[in-house]
Q: What sequence folds into this?
């Protein structure tokens, strides 16, 4: 290799490596992608829930995509408490109006944003939820107030089909 | 590989050995010169090999009866416990075997730390060992998920959620790991596959671990380089084989005690409740062998940094040969290091204890101090100590130290003058 000139052979090597890399990538991708959610899992994307029997101050937990969803019919005190919180006090600032379009109904994933445990109802320092795993406290709007969780409990896409039925997803 | 040429005695042996030198390998393993002062802390390599084989054999037999499906896994484990002939025994050996495996590996690692076995020229042996340890943790975690009890399910949820701490791609990675939007059947089947695979990867790495060991030979309690073979060595067979065998018998007594007298003491009662995605058990605690790292995870109030701290606590071990700047291997000749070593042992035990306790109040404070000290030990104490510490004189050979003789010429002369 005394000459540094690029010759025909160098071109062939580079072209071979490039085609080889694309080929290996194309062969490996199906092996990786097969682990992603399959069609049958994706098909279970929405759930309809009848909430007519739910009294104020009560929560029901339903399963959506394998995860618990909390549906809480909040009392007037809880709504007032959630609305009175100043944004500066929040780790993940979000207005209660944005989380519960109809303030009486709070619908959110019952999954702690720390490491995925299910928080307990009516517990914790902020009258909302408390996660027993690593001690995160959520308020009456499901917003993180204290503990290791980084964000508020997630509000999924949902809509009222009629006054008694909520469709999640 | 061998220090001497080996020729089989029989004609067939010679014919075979010329084509596949298995007999040469057997001869190398038999005659392998071993330091004659190895103590019982050196028997855990053999014990660990026994543990690995036990887990593979019992695991294979369990797999003949277990069903990897979210609807049937829990029942199939109870079927193993109640219906399968000796199923209870095989499962208890396998579940307690994991704990025994970790007990032995921790002794093995701390022996290395005390006698400086990770130092040059044994860095590669050490790093392979750390990889084996990581794979062991992965295998143990996935194995714990398979019975599909409450602890299985929520342990899997918490551990896989660690990946969600990664910025931007975290959520995508977690969904990919689960094969869905939560831990469910796809997660179970892939964990079963990987749990089956990993022990064989470990087996391959154990071969490399021993191969790399046989290049420089064993370290020893005095920590000096020795000539091989010489007056300082004995052949592996029968000397070490007998000693390892005796230690293994003692170990098996402890093992049997757990299996036959308290088979569930190391587990959690919650795992005899079938997995329920709507209810998290009040106290999620990992198995005892992961508790120190769990304590480190929880001692950091930030999600991402907590995960980073926990992973660093394990990976920092791989850098140990370069963090420890001392040229002297054995703690026997390092009076200060010896003290810091025992402080580290206490620190890890404390971390393990607070890892099992709720993360609040005094426990959290202790966990934070112990976590800080853990990193301090590796990042500050070890590098500085190697440069500052006044070490004791090291003997020139094992024979010299065993016979209680002088440690070096200067000391020898001193002693003579004292005696006169």
A:
């Amino acid at each position: 290799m005394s000459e540094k000139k690029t010759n025909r052979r160098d071109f062939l090597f580079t072209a071979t490596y490039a085609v080889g890399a694309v080929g290996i990538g194309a062969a490996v991708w199906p092996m990786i992608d097969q682990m992603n959610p399959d069609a049958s899992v994706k098909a279970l994307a929405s759930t309809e829930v009848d909430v007519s029997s739910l009294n104020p101050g009560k929560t029901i937990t339903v399963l959506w995509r394998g995860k618990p969803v909390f549906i809480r019919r909040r009392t007037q005190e809880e709504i007032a408490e959630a609305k009175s919180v100043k944004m500066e006090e929040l780790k993940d600032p979000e207005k209660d109006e944005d989380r519960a379009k109809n303030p009486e109904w709070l619908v959110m994933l019952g999954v702690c944003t720390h490491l995925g445990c299910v928080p307990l109802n009516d517990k914790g320092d902020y009258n909302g939820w408390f996660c027993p795993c690593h001690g995160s406290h959520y308020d009456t709007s499901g917003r993180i107030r204290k503990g290791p969780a980084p964000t508020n409990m997630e509000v999924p896409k949902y809509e009222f089909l009629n006054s008694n039925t909520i469709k999640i997803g | 590989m061998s220090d001497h040429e080996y020729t089989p005695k029989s004609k067939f042996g010679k014919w075979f050995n010329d084509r596949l030198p298995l007999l040469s390998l057997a001869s190398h393993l038999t005659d392998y010169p071993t330091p004659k002062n190895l103590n019982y802390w050196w028997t855990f390599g053999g014990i660990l090999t026994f543990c690995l084989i036990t887990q593979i054999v019992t695991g294979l037999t369990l797999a003949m009866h277990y069903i990897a499906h979210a609807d049937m896994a829990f029942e199939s484990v109870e079927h193993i416990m109640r219906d399968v002939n000796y199923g209870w025994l095989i499962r208890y050996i396998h579940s307690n075997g994991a704990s025994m495996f970790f007990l032995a590996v921790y002794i093995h690692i701390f022996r290395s730390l005390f006698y400086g076995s990770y130092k040059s020229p044994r860095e590669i042996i050490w790093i392979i060992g750390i990889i084996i340890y990581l794979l062991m943790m992965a295998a143990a975690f996935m194995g714990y998920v398979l019975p599909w009890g409450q602890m299985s399910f929520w342990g899997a949820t918490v551990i896989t959620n660690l990946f969600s701490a990664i910025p931007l791609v975290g959520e995508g990675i977690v969904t990919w790991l689960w094969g869905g939007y939560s831990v469910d059947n796809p997660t179970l089947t892939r964990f079963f596959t990987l749990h089956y695979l990993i022990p064989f990867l470990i087996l391959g790495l154990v071969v490399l671990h021993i191969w790399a060991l046989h290049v420089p030979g064993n370290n020893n309690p005095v920590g000096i380089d020795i000539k091989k073979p010489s007056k300082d060595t004995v052949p592996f067979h029968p000397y070490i084989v007998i000693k390892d065998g005796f230690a293994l018998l003692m170990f098996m007594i402890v093992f049997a005690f757990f299996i036959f007298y308290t088979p569930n003491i190391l587990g959690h009662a919650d795992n005899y409740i079938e997995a329920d995605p709507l209810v998290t058990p009040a106290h999620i605690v990992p198995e005892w062998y992961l508790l120190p790292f769990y304590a480190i995870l929880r001692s950091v109030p930030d999600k991402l940094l907590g995960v980073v701290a926990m992973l660093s606590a394990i990976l920092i071990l791989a850098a140990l040969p370069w963090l420890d700047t001392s040229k002297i291997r054995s703690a026997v000749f390092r009076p200060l290091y010896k003290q810091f070593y025992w402080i580290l042992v206490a620190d890890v035990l404390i971390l393990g204890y607070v890892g099992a306790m709720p993360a609040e109040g005094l426990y959290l404070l202790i966990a934070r101090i112990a976590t800080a000290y853990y990193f301090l030990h590796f990042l500050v104490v070890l590098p500085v100590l190697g440069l500052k510490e006044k070490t004791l004189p090291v003997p020139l050979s094992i024979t010299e130290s065993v016979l209680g003789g002088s440690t070096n010429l200067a000391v020898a002369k001193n002693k003579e003058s004292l005696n006169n």
About this structure: The mean pLDDT of chain B is 92.
